[in-house]
Design goal:
By secondary structure, the protein is mainly alpha-helical. The chain is 87% helix and 0% strand. The radius of gyration is 27 Å and the shape is elongated.
C-alpha cells in the first residue's frame, strides 16, 4: 500500500473547517492582548512587542495545525480558514467579551477609587499642611 501524497476534496474540506475552528482560539489569544491593553495603558513599543508575540503565537498555531492535522503539509487555505474563523469570533463573541471585561475593569476601578478616597483626601490634607509650613519657613529667610 502506497502513501498518499495528496488530499481528497473531502479531506481538504475537513481541513478547511478545522482551520476555521482554529481561528477561534487565535481570537481568544488576541482578546487576551486586547484586555491587557484595556486594563494597562501601553505605549507604542509595548503594543509593537505584543503584536510580534501574537504573530509568533499565530505562526506556532498554524505550524502545529499543519503537523498534527495535515501530515506537515501547509496549504494557503489554512490561513484563509484561520482568518475567517478569527473574523467571525472577533465581530461576535470577541466584542462582547471585551465589552464585559471593560465594564468589569471600570467597576473595579470605581470600587478601588472609593475605597482609597479617604486615604487620598487625608494624604492631600497632610501634603497641603506640609506645603504651607514649608513655604512659611522659607519666606522668613
Amino acid at each position: 500500500m502506497e502513501l498518499e501524497t495528496f488530499f481528497t476534496a473531502t479531506e481538504q474540506t475537513r481541513l478547511f473547517l478545522l482551520s476555521c475552528l482554529l481561528g477561534i482560539p487565535i481570537g481568544i489569544v488576541f482578546d487576551i492582548f486586547r484586555v491587557l491593553r484595556a486594563i494597562i495603558p501601553h505605549n507604542k513599543i509595548m503594543v509593537a512587542l505584543e503584536d510580534i508575540i501574537f504573530m509568533f503565537l499565530y505562526a506556532s498555531f498554524v505550524m502545529c495545525f499543519s503537523i498534527v492535522a495535515s501530515r506537515g503539509e501547509f496549504r494557503f487555505f489554512y490561513v484563509v480558514g484561520n482568518f475567517l474563523g478569527f473574523t467571525v469570533y472577533f465581530f461576535s463573541i470577541g466584542n462582547l467579551v471585551l465589552t464585559v471585561i471593560r465594564n468589569i475593569t471600570l467597576f473595579i476601578h470605581k470600587v478601588i477609587g472609593k475605597a482609597f478616597s479617604p486615604i487620598v483626601k487625608q494624604n492631600s490634607l497632610i501634603c497641603a499642611k506640609i506645603k504651607v509650613k514649608f513655604v512659611e519657613r522659607f519666606k522668613k529667610n
